[in-house]
């Protein structure tokens, strides 16, 4: 759901301009552009990319030895520094497998297990998925300060996929050669490395898989699970139950480009299957500035439910056009793309009362795992802000660690990959709704927020609604 503005490019190319990709995913960037400790490698040249303004883990606690010793080359974050304190050890609550028979192998020595993260950092879309890489760094710092896998710490090697399928493939070739597994990666054009990861048997526990090719990769999984043309039943069910009259006079608008257009069409079909009736639907050109004609059409038809798929900037533009037309539909529904401080800041009174559905714990709330992510993010990148993509990257790292600990001496690429397949209700320690990681189905569980008084506040129960998913046909 959080990925619906990214373009599926199963054939391997970058089918949308980097500028549009940035606009569609700007919410990921947060306030800090630094990538934290370690260096990031350009897979083309092998040279280091400027990591920005983040700093290393200070290691001020009573566990670990302080400092994050980079290893050069592929940009390891090394080190065992930490803050100590009362947080539970990483992997706590998991029954550790016996370490008897543990064998070193690709990316594994007597002291470390090397993992790689390839995310869109530099190139034509600077910082697109910096948040995912920062969150993975944060979890590695937390793990190294509190835990180990059969006496081994983690070393994170950082790679830059540069919002480009070719760079993603090159990064994954290096991860195959140098690292045991890939963890927390996120790229808008992740089809590039899909075949490479599968051919070398690389366990690739990603933040999310965006393209069909990556989702088809047998060794690739996403903490934010995705499935083709699936949509949560809970969204239309909530509206039909609580706003029935509006649900019978609905309209669906979407940006007429790439995945937004595709997703808008099949989501409308799912909502129709669940009892909603649509009077109007339309795609809006990405370059369009005047949303007035679309608003006037809905007003003339008596539409009372308006749903929109677009980046927060376009969502604000639609809201302002609705306000300017003195039009007052009962429900204005957005997807997680608008969960962004800038939506509140730029939307002002025009977005007051807007609805949105999400499948993760809002960052404003306190939740044990979310609090750990926030705490350790500040250790590796003090100027960064947590994001929901960061939540899923942290979740990916957590799942990797838990399964590796459980395997113990049986840990290898094949057994780790197999261990992800039975995972069908992963919540990342409660950070997000249940995800069918192994089955690779889109999430069915959502909850709702509303803009009130310039803030995101819960709409209805804070418990997730889980009514299954349907395929838009």
UniProtKB/TrEMBL annotation:
The UniProt record lists the keyword Signal: yes
Keyword Oxidoreductase among record annotations: no
Record key words, sorted: Signal
Region described as Disordered: spans on this chain: 28-96
Gly residues compositional bias, start-end: 53-85
SUPFAM superfamilies: Periplasmic binding protein-like I
Start-end of Low complexity biased regions: 43-52
Pfam families the record matches: Peripla_BP_6 (PF13458)
Residues in Leucine-binding protein domain copies: 113-455
Record-linked PANTHER family: BLR6548 PROTEIN (PTHR47235:SF1)
Similarity field: Belongs to the leucine-binding protein family.
UniProt-recorded name of the protein: ABC transporter substrate-binding protein
């Amino acid at each position: 759901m959080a990925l619906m503005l990214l373009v599926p490019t199963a054939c391997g190319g970058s089918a949308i301009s980097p500028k549009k990709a940035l606009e569609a995913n700007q919410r990921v960037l947060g306030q800090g552009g630094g990538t934290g400790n370690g260096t990031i490698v350009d897979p083309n040249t092998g040279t280091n990319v400027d990591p920005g303004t983040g700093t290393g883990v200070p290691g001020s606690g009573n566990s670990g030895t302080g400092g994050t010793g980079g290893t050069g080359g592929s940009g390891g974050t090394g080190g065992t520094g930490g803050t100590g304190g009362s947080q539970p050890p990483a992997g706590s609550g998991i029954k550790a497998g016996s370490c008897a028979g543990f064998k070193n192998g690709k990316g594994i020595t007597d002291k470390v297990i090397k993992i790689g993260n390839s995310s869109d950092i530099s190139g034509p879309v600077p910082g697109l998925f910096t948040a995912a890489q920062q969150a993975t760094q944060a979890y590695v710092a937390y793990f190294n300060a509190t835990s180990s896998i059969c006496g081994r710490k983690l070393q994170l090697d950082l790679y830059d996929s540069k919002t480009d399928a070719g760079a993603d493939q090159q990064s994954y070739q290096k991860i195959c050669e140098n690292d045991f597994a890939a963890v927390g990666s996120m790229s808008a054009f992740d089809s590039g490395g899909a075949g490479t990861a599968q051919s070398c048997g690389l366990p690739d526990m990603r933040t999310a898989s965006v393209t069909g090719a990556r989702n088809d990769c047998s060794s690739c999984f996403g903490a934010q699970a995705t499935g083709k043309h699936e949509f949560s039943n809970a969204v239309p069910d909530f509206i039909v139950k609580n706003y029935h009259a509006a649900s019978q006079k609905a309209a669906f608008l979407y940006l007429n480009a790439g995945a937004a257009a595709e997703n808008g069409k099949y989501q409308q079909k799912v909502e129709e299957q669940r009892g909603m009736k649509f009077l109007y639907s339309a795609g809006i050109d990405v370059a369009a500035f005047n949303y007035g004609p679309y608003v006037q059409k809905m007003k003339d038809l008596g539409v009372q439910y308006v749903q929109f798929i677009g980046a927060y900037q376009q969502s604000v533009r639609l809201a302002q056009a609705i306000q300017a037309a003195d039009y007052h539909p009962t429900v204005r529904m957005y997807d997680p793309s608008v969960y962004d401080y800038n939506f509140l800041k730029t939307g002002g009174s025009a977005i007051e009362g807007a609805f949105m559905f999400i499948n993760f714990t809002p960052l404003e709330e306190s939740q044990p795992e979310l609090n750990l992510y926030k705490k350790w993010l500040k250790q590796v990148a003090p100027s960064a802000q947590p994001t929901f993509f960061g939540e899923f990257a942290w979740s990916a790292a957590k799942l990797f660690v838990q399964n590796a600990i459980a395997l113990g001496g049986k840990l290898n690429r094949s057994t780790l990959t197999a261990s992800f397949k039975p995972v069908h209700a992963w919540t990342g320690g409660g950070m997000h709704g249940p995800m069918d990681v192994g089955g690779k189905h889109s999430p069915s569980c959502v909850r709702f927020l509303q803009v009130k008084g310039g803030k995101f506040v819960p709409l209805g129960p804070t418990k997730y609604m889980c009514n299954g998913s349907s395929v838009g046909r």
